[in-house]
Amino acid sequence: MPVAVGPYGQSQPSCFDRVKMGFVMGCAVGMAAGALFGTFSCLRIRMRGRELMGGLGKTMMQSGGTFGTFMAIGMGIRC
């Protein structure tokens, strides 16, 4: 399959690069959302100190991984 060339002579990123970029962008957005919602939910049930950091980190990783996976699938469909 020939490589597509952009308007200034640069080549377009491969499908794998697009999926990878979608995953990374999704992780960033998901972790930011997880930080907001996780902080609110942990403080609501009165977590403090180490327990708060553990709960917040867990929420951020789960949210980032989930949203990153869906963004990667969406970018894969667009390839």
Automatic annotation (TrEMBL):
Its main location: membrane. The chain crosses the membrane at residues 23-43. It holds the Pfam family Romo1. Has antibacterial activity against a variety of bacteria including S.aureus, P.aeruginosa and M.tuberculosis. Acts by inducing bacterial membrane breakage. It comes from the Eukaryota. Belongs to the MGR2 family. It is found in: Membrane. The keyword Translocase does not apply. This is Reactive oxygen species modulator 1.
